[in-house]
Structures are given as structure tokens and as C-alpha cells.
Amino acid sequence: MRRAFVFAVAVLLILGGTLFAGGKQEGALDIGLAMPESHVARWVMDGQKLKEYAESLGYKAEYTLADADQAKQNKQIEDYITKGVKLLVVANINTGVNTVIADAAKAGIEIISYDRLMMDSADYNYYTTFNLKKVGFLQATAIVQALKLDQATSAKPKIITLFAGSPTDNNAYFFFDGAMEVLNPFVDKGVLKIVGPYPRTSADKDNFQRIATEGWRAENAKKRMENLLTGDAKDVVLDAILAPNDPVGRACIEACMNDAKYDTIAKLPIVTGQDGELATVQYILEGKQYMTVFKDSRLLAEATIKLADAILKKQTPSIAGTVKTTFNTNKKNVTTYLLDPILVTKDNVKKIIIDSGYYTPEELKTIGL
Ligand code: BGC
To answer: Is this prediction's pTM over 0.85?
Structure first.
């Protein structure tokens, strides 16, 4: 009798536990996090950090990566809508996202444009990102310092070539324009010579297209660098390469290292980057890549989820550590929160990226640290 009772209680507990766990798992998804691609490493961390912060505030959240394929991301977003999310955080690929964003808005879902501004849409109100022009400003400032452009003469000008990000990404225009505002005056003085196409600003669409890296794919940049080395840059020694992010920077470096003119680390041009990728941390320590612009995904994720929380609770957002401004999508002004990017070279890479715990000890081990 007693054994039967214990058995019955045990069965009830197990059943109850299963039902409870099942109920919890089937609980509606609150926040859908749509990240664009994994061939640029940062987005995996962005997805993870966003999910962690959302969960720490009690929201159920999921993230997806879309292989730089807008159709694929649209399916992922439609899936979030079907699952009944209350809020979407989207780093899009191109304007093909706008149809699903319109559907989400119609369904009453709140939307935050994450890191990249979704252009030509009037269906959302918020944007979180880093100061985009400052990213380019920091890249160019590092070139000015490394090449000592202030002391260069027109008799012996320094030589540079230009790369930009994906023309489908609104950010790419801001990064480039931020850099060229710093570099153009040196070109005008005759102390800096550009080989290859030279758009003075991104408004020169034809030349911008020529230096752009479609889909932010490193293999496209590597091919273009190889063509430059046997073409426009054949008879010169490059002093620097303006590269918009780390994968593009490393692709340029790899292409250079296969060219006899740059076959040792000391002979490599000054190469810029962005994101503080693990492989670039290694390149910076080895002296192959000169700098990166560190945009701490932990901070952007935290700011974005704080904003999401305020929106969902219908409170007035006040996001510490950001500058509030507006960006225009061509269709409307959206409230924007900007974080500050940081210039990282060999001098501060340990402090800013390694010691700040951005990468786990296991990750650091993979680059010999
Ligand atoms: C981001 C960069 C990133 C690039 C490629 C841009 O929109 O701001 O951090 O390197 O996309 O994924």
C-alpha cells in the first residue's frame, strides 16, 4: 500500500515536471533576434549577447543568422512573427527586408534596427549602433599617424589604395565618408597618392562601386587586392590600405603576402580594420594588421535590450552610455542611440580586447595566448 502510494506520488511528480517543462518550452517567444551573416564573426557574438541580456531580464529570446541572404532572413523573421514575438531586433542585409518589416509592424510588433539602418522603411521607430562616421575617422586617423602624413612631402608622397564595405549596407557609406574626410586634405596637398579608383566621397557611386566589397565577403576583397597588385598598384609600393573591416583587412594582407614586394611582415602596408575579430587580434600582435576599430558587442547588445525593455513596458527609454540622435531612412527619422567605437593598435590591444574578457580563455588559446 505504502509502496503504491510512493509510486503514485513519483508518477505524479514526473508527469507534473514534464508538463511544467513542456509548458515553459512552449511559452511564447518574446523577442526575435535576426542577425545577418556568420562569415563576419561578430554577428554570432551579437546574437548570443542579445539573447543572454534578454533572458536576464526575463524575456524568452532566440537568434538566427542568415548567410547574407535576405530571402533567408525574411523567412526567419516570418517565423518569429508566427511564433508571436512582441519585438524584433534586426540587422538586415538589404532593403528586401522591408516587406516583412511592414508585416511585423501591421501585426503590432515593435522593431529595432540593430547596427545597420533598414533604409527606405517607415515601419519602425528605433535604431541602435556605434558612431558610424567615427569608425572611418579612426581608421583614417591611424593611417595619418602611422604614415606620419603631417610630415610627408609632395616630392615623396605616401601611397594608398581604398576598399569599402558592401554597397547593400548603409553603414559602408558612413565608414567610408568618415575616413575620406580625414584623408582628402592630404590628397589635396599632394602628400598622399591614391592608386586604383578614388571616390572622394561615397556620393561618387561609380567609383564607390568599384572599391566596394559585395556582401562584405572577404574572398571578393582578396580577388580585388590580387588584381590591384598586378594592375594599378603593380609599379608602386603601397604604404597603406584603407580596409573597412577585419575580414577585408586580413584578405588584403594575405594577398600582399603572396607578392614578392611584401613578403615579410615588415614590408606589409599599414592595413586598417574594424570589429576586433579574434584572428585580427592575432594579426595585430604579429604586426601584420596595424589597427582595428573595436565595437564592443556586449555594450551594443545591452543597450539594445534595455531599449527593448523600455519599449515593451511603454516607458521612456534612457540608455546610459549612448548619445541620442536621429537617423533618416529616406522615409522617416528614427530615434537612434549611438555607442562610441575605440581605436585599437598593438599598444592597447591587450588592455581593450584581451584583458576585458571579450574572448574566453579557450578562444584566446586558439591564437596562442
Ligand atoms: C557592421 C560591421 C561589420 C560589417 C560586415 C557592418 O554593418 O557595422 O561591424 O564588419 O557589417 O558584417
So the answer is: yes
Mind giving me the DSSP string for 63-110?
EEE-TT-HHHHHHHHHHHHHTT-SEEEE--SSGGGHHHHHHHHHTT-E
CA of 247 to the centre of ligand 1 (A): 10
Q: Is 196 left (phi over 0), alpha (psi -120 to 50) or beta?
A: left
d(C-alpha 138, C-alpha 183), whole Å: 11
Report whether pLDDT(240) > 90: yes
239 Rama class: left (phi>0) / alpha (psi -120 to 50) / beta: alpha
Instruction: In whole angstroms, give the CA distance from residue 138 to residue 292.
Output: 9
Q: How confident is the model at residue 17, as a pLDDT?
A: 42
Please work out whether the CB of residue 171 comes within 6 Å of at least one atom of ligand 1: yes
- Whether residue 217 has its Cβ less than 6 Å from ligand 1: no
Strands 31-35 and 87-90 come out as: parallel
DSSP 15-45: HHHHHHHHHHHHSPP-EEEEE--SSSTHHHH
State whether the beta carbon of 40 lies less than 6 angstroms from ligand 1.
Answer: yes
216 alpha carbon to ligand 1 midpoint, in Å?
Answer: 8
| Ligand 1 neighbour 139 (Cβ under 6 A) | no
- Ligand 1 within 6 A of 222 CB? no
Select from 50, 134, 114 the least CA-distant residue to 334: 114
Residue 126 · residue 112 · CB < 8 Å: yes
Residues 3-33 pLDDT 10s: 554 444 444 444 444 343 333 345 799 999 9
Report the C-alpha dihedral over residues 33, 66, 168, 111, rounded to 10 degrees: -20
- Alpha carbon of 28 to ligand 1 centroid (Å): 31
155 secondary structure, DSSP code: T
CA distance 346 to 264: 18
Q: What is the mean pLDDT of the chain?
A: 94
CB 257 within 8 A of CB 286: no
